[in-house]
Every structure is written in structure tokens, then in C-alpha cells.
Amino acid sequence: MYTYNASMDSKQLTTRQAESMRNALIPHVRYLYRMQTRMEKTGFPQTDELFQATKRAYDAAQDLCMKLHYLSCKSGVGSQAGNNQRETSP
After folding, report:
1. Nearest of 67, 81, 59, 62 to residue 11 by alpha carbon
2. How many CB atoms lie within 10 A of CB 38?
3. Span 54-64, average pLDDT
4. How many Å apart are CA 87 and CA 69, to the nearest integer?
5. pTM given for the model
6. Would you tell me how many other CB atoms lie within 10 Å of the CB of residue 83?
7. CA neighbours within 13 Å on the CB side: how many for 65?
8. What mean pLDDT is reported for the chain?
């Protein structure tokens, strides 16, 4: 694991950065969804380790995708209109 001395958090991401990250993640979320659906259709038991790992991966990726979506909104769900300084960064 790498350790960085820079201090940045999600509040410092611009709306464009969050949108770009979300757009890069979407194909992976879709792949995990299709994988989970195929496993269900082919009869994988819900107790199977691979099925459980796939479900956790999909759930985590979907959660991350939604958090990035909210960060990419200029106003509304995650921020106040007219008070969002994140959107002005290049």
C-alpha cells in the first residue's frame, strides 16, 4: 500500500473530476451486474464464495458510482446552489 503526504479528500474534487471518475467506473459496474445476473441464471447458490464476492464487488462499485454521481452534481442532492466552489476548478 502506498502512502502519500498530500492531504486531499472528496470535498476537494471538482464536479468534472467526479463525473470523469464515475464515467470510468460505469462499465465495470455494468460488467459486475451482468456477471452476478449470469451466476443467478446458471444456478449458483447464494452461499457460493464466488457469488458472494461478486455481489459484494457489485454493491461496493454501485455505491461508489452513486457517491461520485452526487459529487458531480452542481446543486441539489449533495450541495447548495450558488455555493458550490468545486465546479469552478479546471
Report:
1. 67
2. 11
3. 98
4. 14
5. 0.77
6. 7
7. 15
8. 86
